[in-house]
Design brief:
Two copies of one chain form a homodimer. By secondary structure, the first copy, chain A, is an alpha/beta fold. Chain A is built from nine helices and 15 strands. In chain A, the strands form three sheets. In chain A, strands 3, 4, 5, 6, 7, 14 and 15 form a seven-stranded mixed beta sheet that branches. In chain A, strands 10-9-8-11-12-13 form a six-stranded parallel beta sheet, with helices on both faces. In chain A, strands 1-2 form a two-stranded antiparallel sheet. At the A-B interface, helix 7 and strand 13 of A face helix 7 and strand 13 of B.
Chain lengths: ~325, ~325
């Protein structure tokens, strides 16, 4: 009998996630029925939005139910198959949550050719988020100045590289001098601001002398306030995430909208689910960039499903560079 | 010798306008040069944006200089002409500020056919603001729910009537039961919320059961906060004005952007100056509506240039219905 470990949401966190909010429980993996496959999860994707799913605020999906397995995307390997469409050894993506094993009748088989983590970052929803947010929502054009918060993070790192390939001036924000160096030297941004130590307003005036045309917003809070003070005419603020406020317990206030008026600016939110039908457009453009070495991507991998909750915290403390994954089992 | 009274900005108001911020001074009207006309101002347009022009915040025009005549739009009558393009008695619009007389080489001659105040409200920039904001920026469509703050005001009253003519459900907000009755009974809105006495969130849930598709925002502050809690998917918040914060002295915070993300909403500011080249599109549609009695407009007229500063305060206390004008002299 194979044992499956599952992270169960026991109560909704208030502010930071505390011990007892989630619990790791064990249960036997059920017998396969005809048409089903058994997937052994290898990588679990950790994303800021996971914190939203734990809350019962109005959101873009139903929140995870108290008592349910924590929601999450995984890449796994088919260990047993009673479905002719799947062979043992196939790598697949699942959306069945934080657990060792998935028994399912359907999962998407991954292509071959890239390391598995790439399909959770640059060649997955993370990269597509960067691409459609920047170009479709933000309508970034050559010659424009693009600002990217969480620039060393999974999405931000791809946003900036795409913006550079499209001919934009790109200024990132990150939380340490080491990350800023990485963002400029390895990712090729024109500049990167350490938002923990620099005067944001002065830094934007230095690095964005003509104002900010597109802000790819992952943070919110004081960073967004400073962005609003440095907008170019007809600026677009693309709201991809607001991680600065996900652990807030009181009422959250947003940025002063005065410059939305004065600069005829647009603040627009998007959810990558709305672009699922267009991912191939993105892969068609990113594939060659990757093959030609024009885009790089990094991954921070935390070992062990038992460490998933602690690992999620890294997103809020800036402990990761690039895509954050939990390794649940070995690939081979 | 004709004496001209002019309101001079003496110092920038901090918070509410105080005595001493503006001063009414007298000087002789200069002699006309060849090519010039002398205009006797009849009506002065008062608008919330006047308060912005008195501040030195980053804005869409240079602020009025300290020591300069307060900026404002007027309608006047040509009293003397040394320019063949103008006849004595022509009604013209000027943008030379809060004063009795204007000596100028150029002013736009008004068409005939409507009372002069109409050219400062429904058939002027006020109406065009309503039209382009609602339809061009907000992209309101038949069947959608439109919310309009300051619904009994100059712009809001036109927004709602246009939205009704376009097949929308329209819910206004106003600051008294009398105004709410006016908005529903005379302007034809589907409902109007008294924002001073009603629970805004509950009222929106009652009157906008499918959520708010378009918010034509003139207010900001708590009204906008409640709007953000009641957005429909893909909602558009059109920022026309933020009068709730124009007299703020401390840092201003805006609405929580969480639902911009969850509802894939768009907040977009606009300034009517950007649409000057398209006013004829608006007049072509509004003219027949007016002629057919499908749109009504009201005007609150305060007598006397000397009362202009006090009159401006009515916009912030809700003392006007429809367009607020100062009558500087008699038409005839």
């Amino acid at each position: 009998m194979t044992i499956n470990r599952q992270w169960i949401l026991r109560q909704r966190p208030i502010g930071d996630i505390e011990p007892g909010d989630l619990e790791l429980v064990e249960s036997p993996v059920p017998e396969l029925q005809d048409g089903q496959i058994l997937v052994r999860n290898v990588y679990l994707s950790l994303d800021p939005t996971n914190r939203i799913w734990m809350s019962d605020i109005d959101q873009y999906m139903p929140p995870v139910g108290v008592g349910d397995v924590m929601r999450g995307a995984t890449i796994g390997v088919v260990e047993q198959s009673r479905n002719a469409a799947y062979a043992v050894g196939d790598a697949v993506t699942c959306f069945d949550g934080w657990q060792d094993y998935v028994v399912t009748g359907g999962a998407q088989v991954l292509p071959k050719g890239l390391p598995l983590p790439a399909y959770m970052s640059v060649m997955g929803a993370t990269g597509a988020t960067a691409y459609f947010g920047l170009l479709d929502v933000g309508k970034a054009k050559a010659g424009e100045t693009v600002v990217v918060s969480a620039a060393a993070g999974a999405v931000g790192s791809i946003v900036g590289q795409i913006a550079k390939l499209k001919g934009c001036r790109v200024v990132g924000l990150a939380g340490s001098d080491e990350k800023c160096a990485y963002v400029v030297e390895k990712l090729g941004f024109d500049a990167c601001i350490n938002y923990k130590t620099e005067d944001l307003d002065a830094a934007f005036k230095t690095h964005c002398p003509d104002g900010i045309d597109v802000d790819f917003e992952n943070a919110g809070g004081p960073i967004l306030d400073a962005v609003m003070n440095n907008l170019a005419m007809n600026a677009r603020i693309v709201v991809c995430g607001l991680i600065a406020q996900y652990n807030e317990t009181g009422p959250v206030r947003g940025p002063d909208l005065t410059n939305v008026l004065m600069k005829r600016a647009r603040i627009e939110g998007f959810i990558i689910l709305d672009f699922l039908g267009r991912f191939e457009e993105y892969f068609a453009e990113m594939g060659p960039w990757l093959a030609q070495g024009k885009v790089v991507y990094d991954t921070t991998i935390v070992q062990g499903l038992e460490n998933a909750v602690d690992a999620l915290g890294l997103l809020f403390t800036g402990g990761n560079t690039g895509k954050l994954l939990v390794q649940i089992s070995l690939e081979g």
